[in-house]
Specification:
Length: 337
């Protein structure tokens, strides 16, 4: 019943995007100068989880690369590594420029020099940019004439209200091209699902009632919708039935939620992952003990203020942890499923 398993994966960038024409042309226009060999406009993409930020950025850059020579994509998710060298190394790996440089022991200026010296133009997609340890990297990269930045994060106010945000970064990016994505409406999610069904399933496997039910449960989050579709399809595929029912969708709902959570955990970089694991192993842990355990287990511990940022991102932004109390009386725990 499955004709193309890839189409049911959440990481798949579809051939065509649904209901984002306005934003696609907005970003394409900002990057358009690259086709003439000059710098584009730095851009910011905001929107809730599952609204298609990452997909939109990758899609527009892919199109641009199909249409013109000398444009490179450099993608990095700052949650997976947020120090300057981790980010630069990630960008080098994805773009192929400076990809011979090792992550450990290469000066940040060496990476920057590699980028400056290439004849190509680089679109640097910095996903989950709020996780960056040092936002001045946005200046170091963004000031290069042949680098255009597309920075992605969930919350606009949060990004600009960040009291630590360097003044020059703030003013540089307050005039950036800004894309604001909203949660998908119910009928938009249905169109997204229909396109995946068309691309990935034999006709007749799923009826309109089941598609509407998935869209309802996903509540505007396209990743959740696709996950539910993929899981319920595989459930039916394993049975001797040939149609997805509402019960199939209910049966995979909890597992789909856990899966999405696990995907998120898997994307954490070393230090955030370590903090998460310490809390998860202990079930509940006081902040003092958490820091002590971290210092014991980390090869090269981050300073206190960095850890505090990581922890607050794990709690507030990603909902992977919860906390009670304040100051030294603060406790962290993993929320009930
Ligand atoms: N316009 C679209 N048309 C069709 N599918 C889409 C569209 N936008 C996103 N998707 C699909 O929805 C899923 C979620 O999109 P994406 O990962 O880009 O969301 P996001 O906003 O980056 O979320 P997060 O903040 O959690 O990273 C992906 O599987 C993607 O393929
Ligand atoms: Mg994303």
């Amino acid at each position: 019943m499955i004709t193309n398993a890839r189409a049911l994966e959440t990481t798949y960038v579809p051939q065509d995007l649904e209901h984002r024409d306005g934003q696609i042309s907005q970003l394409a226009t900002a990057l358009e100068p690259l086709t003439q060999g000059v710098g584009g406009e730095h851009s910011l993409i905001f929107g809730p989880s599952g609204s298609g930020k990452t997909t939109l950025a990758k899609y527009v850059v892919r199109k641009l690369r199909e249409e013109s020579f000398g444009v490179r994509r450099a993608y990095w998710n700052c949650m997976s590594g947020s120090s300057k060298t981790e980010v630069l190394h990630g960008l080098a790996q994805d773009s192929g420029i400076g990809n011979h440089l090792s992550r450990d022991g290469t000066a940040t200026s060496t990476f920057i020099d590699e980028f400056r010296e290439t004849d190509d133009h680089i679109v640097a997609i910095l996903d989950e940019v709020d996780a960056l340890e040092d936002e001045t990297l946005l200046l170091g990269l963004g000031d290069l004439p042949n680098v255009t930045i597309v920075a992605i994060t969930i919350d606009e106010d949060d990004f600009f209200a960040n009291h630590r945000l360097n003044g020059r970064v703030r003013s540089r990016f307050s005039s950036a091209e800004t894309l604001r994505l909203r949660k998908f409406a119910n009928d938009e999610l249905i169109d997204i699902l229909l396109a995946r069904i068309d691309a990935g399933l034999r006709p007749g496997v799923i009826g309109m009632d089941a598609i509407e039910y998935i869209a309802d449960l996903a509540a505007g989050d396209a990743r959740k919708a696709i996950k539910l579709l993929g899981k319920s399809t595989r459930r039916v595929d394993r049975s001797d039935r040939s149609q997805i029912t509402l019960e199939d969708i209910d049966a995979v709902h909890d597992e789909a939620r856990q899966d999405l959570r696990q995907d998120h955990i898997n994307s954490l970089g070393t230090h955030k992952r370590l903090l998460y694991d310490i809390v998860s192993d202990a079930e509940e842990i006081g902040v003092t003990e958490l820091h002590a355990t971290y210092e014991e287990r980390a090869a090269d511990p981050k300073p206190n203020r960095t850890r505090r940022r990581y922890l607050s991102a794990l709690v507030d932004k990603y909902g992977l942890l919860e906390s009670t109390g304040a100051g030294r009386g603060k406790n962290y725990f993993v929320p009930e499923p």
